[in-house]
Design a protein that fits this description.
single chain, alpha+beta, Heat Shock Protein 90, five-stranded antiparallel sheet, 3 helices, protein serine/threonine kinase activity, ATP-binding protein, Anti-sigma-factor_SerPK
């Protein structure tokens, strides 16, 4: 487990991916300086078996923090989708996750090592397709989500923010 500085502390800015195509791109709100912030993170190999392990680690951490159970389940679904996409659609060897909790607001970041140039985008899956709905679920459940480039030649950060509805 490793700790991480709050998002945007290093000046990074999200580059793409508004939560829905009909919504203009908006930058995530910075965490208020006065808020008590809890942070945690972990790294796992980029294997299919890591998806369940990531989901379990996120669930356990959020329970220890006393995060509301319903939002914890939502966070586990989001982490599953982000990890699955990193495993399936990048050439990463490792995938890392960071969690930042401020009050009842949770920020999830999943960082891959992939070199794929396209950014994750929700797509319209047909009724008979088995895959292709993950980012639609994230769009529906998260207050906001997006993608930040880590280094144009080496990976990206996919993030989501969850809070009470």
């Amino acid at each position: 487990m490793w700790l991480r500085h709050p998002p945007q502390a290093d000046g990074r800015q999200p580059l793409v991916a508004p939560s829905r195509p009909d919504v203009q791109l908006s930058w995530p709100q910075p965490v208020p300086v006065t808020a008590a912030v809890r942070e945690a993170g972990f790294e796992l190999p980029a294997h299919a078996s890591s998806v369940g392990r990531a989901r379990a680690r996120v669930g356990a951490r959020l329970r220890r923090w006393g995060f509301p159970e319903d939002l914890g389940h939502t966070a586990q679904l989001v982490i599953s989708e982000f990890f699955t996409n990193a495993v399936l659609h990048t050439d990463s060897g490792q995938i890392s996750c960071s969690l930042q909790l401020s009050g009842q607001r949770l920020r999830i970041e999943v960082t891959d090592e992939g070199t794929e140039r396209c950014s994750p985008q929700p797509r319209d899956a047909s009724d008979d397709e088995v895959n292709g709905r993950g980012l639609q679920l994230v769009s529906a459940l998260a207050e906001s989500w997006g993608v930040s480039a880590r280094d144009p030649r080496r990976g990206r950060v996919v993030w989501a923010e969850l809070g009470p509805q």
